[in-house]
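User: Run a structure prediction on this.
Assistant: Running it now.
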Amino acid sequence: MSDSTSAQAPAKPCTAPECNQFDFWMGDWALSYNDTVHATNRITKEMGGCLIHEHFDDPAHTYKGESWSMYNVKTKLWQQTWVDDQGEYITLTGTFANGKMTLHTEPVAMPDGTKSQSRMVFYNITKDSFVWDWESTTDEGKTWKNNWRIHYKRK
């Protein structure tokens, strides 16, 4: 006869330490870029702590977007999906290492035969601020061009 109380309970999902690596992003943020543009970003943790949900709003450019991120314990990678009101759909994967969260797109073949790839990098992370860069490469990551830098300040 087995004792049902001694049976091991299934592990709670999304409890691996890596699942908390994006916690610095949680909250309400005031954003600035190009020295004059101001936007907001509200980041929430949902679905039992498994999902990071981004709500980006730039009213000056009537631009809104959302992303959904989660740590995949099977692949040991962060996965993110971004969609916006300009028809953009982007998928990224990456890791948190050396104080930076870096998420990459897959390389895309261009008409001239080169491959283009993009990445976002969260860095200079403190409790109340960090910097976010959107970068691209056409030489397989040897060099990266900064296309968009956003300064985050906690509201």
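The chain has a mean pLDDT of 92.
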